[in-house]
Amino acid sequence: MSIERIKAPSKAEFFANFVKPQQAVILTGVMDNWPALERWSVNYFRKKYGHLTVPIQDYDIDISTDPEHYLKNQQVVDMRFEQYLDTLDDPGDSRYYMVQADFALFNDELREDLGAINYLSWSNKLRGRKYFIRMGQPRCNSFLHIDTLHNFFCQIHGRKRWGLYPQDQLKYLYIPSELRIERYSPINLAQVDDEKYPLFALAQRTEVMLNKGDVLYLPPNWGHYVDTVDFSIGVNIWWDTSYNEIKGMPNYLKRKWTGKR
Ligand SMILES: O=C(O)CCC(=O)C(=O)O
User: What is the set of domains in the chain, with CATH numbers?
Assistant: First the structure.
C-alpha cells in the first residue's frame, strides 16, 4: 500500500477518491497562501502569546515508548507559554509536548493565520472550534492509536514521520485494547513483545514523511503513530461528514446549552 501525494484536488475529486473509500492521502498546495507558513516561529509565539497559559504534556523520556506506562504516568500541566517555549532549547529529562492546544485559547485570533480548507462544509464550520495546535521538539512522539473523526493534519513547520495502518489492520494492532483508552494499541513500538502480540508482525504499514506545507488527510479508524523529526508545529482540524454532523447536532446543542459533556 502506498499513500498518494496529490496537488490540491477539487472537492468532488477529494470526496470521491479519498473520503468515500476512506483512503489516506497527502494533499500538497492546499496551504500555499496561509500566513502561518511564514509567520509561525518560536519568536512569533513568544511575542504575541507568551503571556497565555497553555496545556503541556509532560513525561519522562524513558517511558515515552511504553503505552501502558505512559497512560499511567503522563500528566498535563498548565504552563505560561513563554516558559514552555524556553524549555524547547533545554528540556532536561522531561519531554514537553503541546499536544492539543485549542485555538479558543488564543481567542481564535490564531485562526487568522490559517487560510481556508476548501474541503470543509458548512456543517463543519457550524460546529466550529475543532482546531488544535501541536508543538514539540524531536523527541515528541505519539503511540499507535486510532481516532474516531476525520483528520486534516496541517504541517506548518518542521517534519513529522507518520506510520499508517488502514482500517482493516486493527486486529493486528490489538485495537480496541484493554488499556484505559481502548483506542490505543498496547504495543511498545520500540520493543515489540512478539510472544504477547504475535499478530503484529502481520500488520501492513506505510511510513510517510509530512513536510512543511503538506496536509495529511487521515480517515477515522486508521492506525497511526507519529514521530517528530524536527522542531514541529502542526494544526489538527477534526471534522465529520455532513451526514454525521447533522445527526449529532441535537446532542451537540444540548451539551453546549447545558454545559454538560
Ligand atoms: O502529531 C502527533 O504527535 C500525533 C498526531 C495524531 O495522532 C493525530 O493527528 O491524529
Answer: 5-258 (2.60.120.650)
